[in-house]
Amino acid sequence: MGTKKFIQTLQVLRQGSISILLIGGVFYLNRFTGGVALLTIGGLSLAVHSFLRAFTPIYEEPNWELVYPELALGHHSFDTPQEVTSKNEEL
Fold it and tell me: What is the pTM for the complete model shown?
């Protein structure tokens, strides 16, 4: 269930649900007919989205030390050479 198409469908469901919920809120506040129905539809579709979201794969953080080897050494580009020397002396 973690395909790209499934995740895109979930994004559309979430954005559509939020839109319906907001429109329902405006209708309800202005006492237009159908406000309660729109709030119910938007809330239920957000609940369905939350349920389906549980079946998507967990995002795995890439190993940035393979991309930037200086991360493995503990060097920071914002350190001045004096700070790096003093840090190494402390170790």
Answer: 0.62
Distance CA 34, CA 40 (A): 10
Helix intervals (H) in 30-80: 35-53, 64-67, 70-73
Give the DSSP H/E element, type plus range, for residue 10: helix 4-29
Under DSSP, is residue 82 helix (H, G, I), strand (E, B) or coil?
helix
Sequence spans of domains, the chain: 1-60, 61-91
Residue 76 DSSP class: -
Q: Who's near 29: CB < 8 A, 6+ residues apart? A: 35
Condensed to tens digits (0 to 9), the pLDDT of residues 9-42 reads 999 999 999 999 999 999 999 999 999 999 999 9
